[in-house]
Design brief:
heterotrimer, A alpha+beta (667), B mainly alpha (221), C alpha+beta (248), A: 667 residues, alpha+beta, Flavocytochrome C3, Chain A, domain 1, Methane Monooxygenase Hydroxylase, Chain G, domain 1, 19 strands, globular, B: 221 residues, mainly alpha, 3 helical TM bundles of succinate and fumarate reductases
């Protein structure tokens, strides 16, 4: 076990980043033309990094498995992006955003990184507006804000329920500008399958052309991994079907440490699972919690009656409803952070109060918001003595303008009208705070290999606040990485192009080819999905919203067994040299089967409850999470040693100098 | 044809030539209508149109050019559009998302073109022969009897009516579509669309009425 | 639910394809259309046949990856949704469903139902951006107030997901709605006005080069667009184009 050097610059917290930028090496524009950078992943982090690096003058190659950078899963983020602009004058500041994020992350994030994130957040909004991102505005023409879970100010900028889409299209347009200039060469429908290390430095990748099946060698002076999170290890998640851990896992196997894999965010407001056929889960934006009230019946018999359809939820009397978040957390109410809301829902459902067929759903009810808004609207329109019906009608209109697209989406999927009957929701895997370990410069433990966005572990600690993922992705890509990577590349101005015919490239390509051949020629009997679903079940049941030592030990054994079965019995139809989605899935699931084990090992070693990691052994009498700051205030970074079971733990101790570590309370 | 290099420019050219033809159609209708009201007015207007130098030697060539241009460009566009989908759908339900008229401008257009051929053969060619080849002296009274004579044959009247019914479809889509093409789509568009649809139906029906009027009038005599 | 699927199968871009018939049983109304295809594929794999290749990713109607011409309509019979949001409850027991790739010369088939839509990317690369450096050293975001209605209209145009349904629905395989949406977004915002002339000329030129058909205002694109992008955007682009041509 060693202590990791996070390379956080010295000096007062608020001056670290400025000072660091002044101290680091720069590459002159003429030399940048001789330097190549590979960016894998073209979401918010990768897309913005690629655009900025190309703009600075580097030759950039981008890789994504999608058919266009515009389809990266950042596009699905709904709610918004945080920034400490304080446009609302409600007391927001860089420090407060920093404070909220560290607290929200349950004091398990790196102070200096979070402060930098808060510091550059305001710049992101300026940048995006300049690019033509159509944020929501007020009638005065200025930008509108809304509030999100876990904070007491309104600092979230948004574009209806499609903020991620608009920001991603902004980054994509910045990329397009550079593609048009010839500074970015895009390789779409390409999947990175290995990292090539030459003389201890990341010098290229092996990628598979997903149309021809050809393996390609690409060299560069630095490699950036921005391939998102690994939530799909649970099979069912709100991630895209193609979201995977492969790039992160390949660099892990080549020497990059993997940090805090057990920190996973389970989002409280998703549409519940409807059956075994389910391929993915759909999120309902957290912004709904601004107006929706979450409840379950107080009595078991009512819950039972609702489950089998004999009682309609709207007919249940007020006093028979348990608004459990408002009851347990009076000060934050329905707007507690995601981990807290999710666990509370699970607790109620486990206690037998679930409201759908499977018993795994709670209500998100807009009835009182509809009436409240309806009364306001009636007053504004000077309607005297409005009937209840008029009020409801007016209120529904207000709700429609606020959340119309989400309500429509819900209705299409569930076939029930959420204006008339409460929505049913249940938590689902949504985001992974853990990821590749990086230092303050976003460099992994492999020199020249960087990691940005959700793929790295850096800023959210054990739990991410709403609307902070977009902020981090763009901060990393637009404002952090382009500076810090220059410091590294300053030594490479005389290196010249990296040849791709070296022994290292040969070996890496052979490694990939062997894996593909093994899968294609396996002739097993079971489909890839069969194994993926099984892995998902193990993860959800034993390594999901709450965990205990026994369950985790079982999970570790079960995953190892499943991995063996996979290599023995998986069937991959088709050939290697053609479009072959089953082969693509097989390679991704192979990596998930390894990550899953490390995930459980990490969860087992962390004998405390913090943020998204809840160990049943470590809770208060009221069922709240119990941290162990004395023994676990560190980042757990795992080094690969030939098998996930043999991973070696390295610690990065976390110090909190500018913030007082407290028990997180939203009561 | 440099101006017509881009798809948008071609679209605008189609719209402008179409609007010009729509305008001509309206003017033609007014003159024809006068034949129902008062043969003398019809004769005098027709005589004016047939002998005025500006109309004969400036506007008439422009009109002929406009017709040819609209048709040639229309065909060219259709050809290009066909190439844009080399392999057809086995199942294509355009009727669920667009009107028959909008999808079949070529069919209605070709029928109208065929009718125009007949129309030229019936009226315009004899007129040119009469005036410029055989050089008959000007006769301001001949137009009305000629018109009535042409509407004698039930077959010809039938064809005439069919062409105008198809013209309804052509205009139904084409007239309002022309405004969209030149970039006019705003809060006034609904009203404008109503007007174009009314025009699309009433003007051709008016022509049909005139034809039937003269046809049946002769039967009585 | 018992269904008969007629699906376009094509081994590769060069190969000749054909329609194949697959009976399928046990389909639940709560399944999405793509989950129904997952079921088919699992059965095909179990039988030792090659699964049907189709594009899909987010499965929540926002990434624009999924396509499919279903019973003659892009994204199937329902409105304002993508194929991944289409649920089987829209079909009846015993139905025959015809599934084809989006057809256009500019969208060549890669395999089965998967098509190459990179022509859309190239149209965007021709000018679908504001030429501003990503340094962040721009003016404050609130320095230029923008009329709410204009901002909302720009958003509505920007909501395009680039799925290609407009092209697939159009009898001419025209990409006007897609191109117009991007041109409109920037034309409506002061940030985009600066480059408006160049942008519309370049993007239209690229659109034509890709081999899309001409727009004849049938309006099918607007009806079939999963995001309800309005025809007004095409009118706006026509206007912008005319003005730009005159300016030179």
């Amino acid at each position: 076990m060693s202590n990791l050097n996070s390379k956080v610059p010295s000096g007062p917290l608020s001056e670290k980043w400025t000072k660091h930028k002044n101290d680091i090496n720069l590459v002159n524009p003429a030399n940048k033309r001789n330097i190549d950078v590979i960016v894998v992943g073209t979401g918010l982090a990768g897309g913005s990094a690629a655009a900025t690096l190309a703009e600075l003058g580097y030759n950039v190659k981008t890789f994504c498995y999608q058919d266009s950078p515009r389809r990266a899963h950042s596009i699905a983020a709904q709610g918004g992006i945080n920034a400490a602009k304080n446009y609302q004058g409600d007391g927001d500041s860089t420090y407060r955003l920093f404070y909220d994020t560290v607290k929200g992350g349950d004091y398990r994030s790196r102070e200096a990184n979070v402060y930098r994130l808060a510091e550059v957040s305001a710049n992101i909004i300026d940048q995006c507006v300049a690019q033509g991102v159509p944020f929501a505005r007020e009638y005065g023409g200025l930008l509108d804000n809304r509030s999100f879970g876990g904070v007491l100010v309104s600092r979230t900028f948004y574009a209806k329920g499609q903020t991620g889409q608009q920001l991603l299209l902004g980054a994509y347009s910045a990329m397009n500008r550079q593609i048009n200039r010839g500074k970015i060469k895009p390789f779409n429908r390409h999947e990175m399958l290995d990292l090539v290390i030459v003389d201890g430095k990341a010098r290229g990748i092996i990628a598979r052309d997903m149309v021809t099946g050809e393996l390609e060698r690409h060299s560069a002076h630095a490699v950036v991994i921005a391939t998102g999170g690994y939530g799909n290890v649970f099979y069912l998640s709100t991630n895209a079907m193609g979201s995977n851990v492969t790039a992160s896992w390949k660099i892990h196997k080549r020497g990059a440490y993997f940090a805090n894999p057990c920190y996973t965010q389970i989002h409280p407001t998703c549409i519940p699972v409807s059956g075994d056929h389910q391929s993915k889960l759909t999120l309902m934006s957290e912004s709904l919690r601004n107006d929706g009230r979450i409840w379950v019946p107080k009595k078991h018999e009512d819950a039972e009656a609702i489950r089998n359809g004999t009682l309609k939820p709207v007919d249940l009397k007020e006093e028979d409803r348990d608004y459990y978040l408002e009851r347990r957390y009076p000060s934050f109410g329905n707007l507690v952070p995601r981990d807290v809301a999710s666990r509370a829902a699970k607790e109620r459902c486990d206690a037998g109060f679930g409201v759908n067929k499977t018993g795994e759903a709670v209500f998100l009810d807009f009835a009182s918001a509809i009436m409240r808004y309806g009364k306001e609207a009636a007053a504004v329109q000077h309607i005297e003595d409005p009937s209840e019906e008029t009020i409801r009608e007016l209120g529904e209109k207000v709700i429609e303008t606020k959340y119309g697209n989400l309500f429509q989406m819900y209705e299409k999927i569930v076939d029930a009208n959420p204006y008339k009957t409460p929505m049913m929701i249940y938590p689902a895997v949504h985001y992974t705070m853990g990821g590749v370990w990086v230092d303050y410069n976003l460099e992994t433990t492999i020199p020249g290999c960087y990691c940005a966005g959700e793929a790295n572990f850096s800023d959210h600690g054990a739990n991410r606040l709403g609307a902070s993922a977009l902020m981090q992705g763009l901060a990393d890509g637009y404002f952090v990485l382009p500076y810090t990577i220059g410091d590294y590349l300053a030594d490479d101005i005389r290196t010249g192009p990296i040849p791709t015919n070296s022994a290292e490239f040969d070996a890496a390509e052979k490694n990939v080819k062997d894996q593909i051949d093994a899968l294609v020629n396996n002739n097993g009997t079971k489909s890839v999905d069969y194994f993926h679903k099984k892995l998902g079940k193990i993860m959800w049941n034993n390594v999901g919203m709450s965990r205990n030592a026994k369950g985790l030990e079982e999970a570790i054994a079960a995953i190892r067994e499943l991995r063996e079965a996979f290599w023995k019995d998986v069937r991959v139809p088709g050939a290697a040299n053609e479009v072959n989605p089953e082969l693509e899935k097989a390679m991704r699931v192979a990596d998930f089967l390894e990550l899953g084990e490390l995930f459980a090992i990490d969860a087992l070693h962390r004998n405390e409850s913090c943020g998204g990691h809840f160990r049943e052994e470590y809770q208060t009498e009221e069922g709240e999470a119990m941290r162990d700051d004395e023994n676990f205030t560190y980042v757990a970074a795992w080094e690969y040693k030939g098998d996930p079971g043999k991973a070696v733990l390295h610690k990065e101790d976390l110090e909190f100098k500018d913030i007082q570590v407290k028990t997180r309370s939203y009561k | 044809m440099g101006l017509l290099k881009s798809s948008v420019a071609r679209k605008v050219a189609m719209a402008l030539s179409g609007l010009f033809l729509v305008f001509f159609l309206g003017q033609h209708f007014v003159i024809n209508l006068s034949s129902v009201v008062d043969p003398d007015t019809f004769n005098s207007w027709s005589h004016f149109m047939g002998t005025n130098g500006l109309i004969q030697f400036v506007l008439q060539p422009i009109l002929i050019f406009g017709v040819i241009f609209h048709f040639v460009l229309g065909f060219r566009l259709e050809l290009q559009n066909n190439k844009a989908r080399a392999i057809r759908y086995k199942s294509y339900k355009g009727q669920l998302s667009s009107s028959w008229a909008s999808r079949n401008m070529l069919i209605t257009g070709v029928v109208i073109l065929a009718f125009l051929g007949l129309h030229f053969y019936d009226f315009w060619v004899p007129e040119i022969v009469h005036k410029y080849i055989e050089s008959h002296p000007a006769d301001a009274e001949r137009y009305f009897p000629e018109l009535v004579h042409k509407f004698e044959s039930p077959v010809r009247v039938g064809l005439y009516c069919l062409a105008f019914v198809l013209l309804i479809f052509h205009l139904w889509h084409g007239f309002s579509s022309a405004f969209q093409s030149v970039g006019f789509n705003n809060k006034y568009s609904r009203g404008l669309k109503g007007f174009t649809r009314l025009y699309a139906v009433l003007i051709p029906l008016g022509f049909v009425f005139i034809a039937l009027y003269h046809h049946f009038n002769q039967l009585h005599h | 639910m018992k269904l008969t699927l007629k699906i376009w199968r094509q081994k590769s871009a060069q190969a000749k394809g054909s329609m194949q018939t697959y009976p399928i049983d046990g389909i639940d109304g709560d399944m999405s259309f793509l989950e129904m295809l997952d079921v088919l594929n699992t059965q095909l794999i179990d039988r030792g046949e090659e699964p049907v290749v189709f594009d899909h990713d987010c499965r929540e109607g926002i990434c624009g990856t999924c396509s499919l011409q279903i019973n003659g309509e892009p994204h199937g019979p329902d409105r304002l949704i993508t194929t991944c949001q289409l649920h089987m409850r829209k079909f009846n027991d015993g139905d025959t469903i015809v599934i084809e790739p989006f057809r256009a010369k500019a969208f060549p088939v890669i395999k089965d139902l998967m098509v190459d839509r990179s022509s859309f990317d190239r149209i965007q690369q021709a000018g679908g951006y504001v030429s501003v450096n990503t340094s962040g050293n721009t003016i404050d975001a609130n320095a230029i107030p923008i009329e709410k209605d204009k901002a909302d209209e720009a958003f509505n145009a920007a909501a395009c997901i680039g799925c290609g349904a407009c092209v697939a629905a159009c009898k001419n395989a025209s990409a006007m709605l897609f191109t117009a949406a991007k041109v409109s977004q920037f034309a409506l915002l002061p940030q985009g006005r600066v480059e408006a002339t160049r942008r519309v000329l370049n993007m239209v030129e690229q659109m034509d080069k890709e081999g899309f058909g001409n727009c004849t205002n049938t309006g099918a694109c607007e009806v079939e667009c999963p995001k309800g992008i309005s025809l007004e955007n095409i009118a706006r682009m026509n206007r912008e184009y005319l003005a730009a041509s005159l300016r030179g």
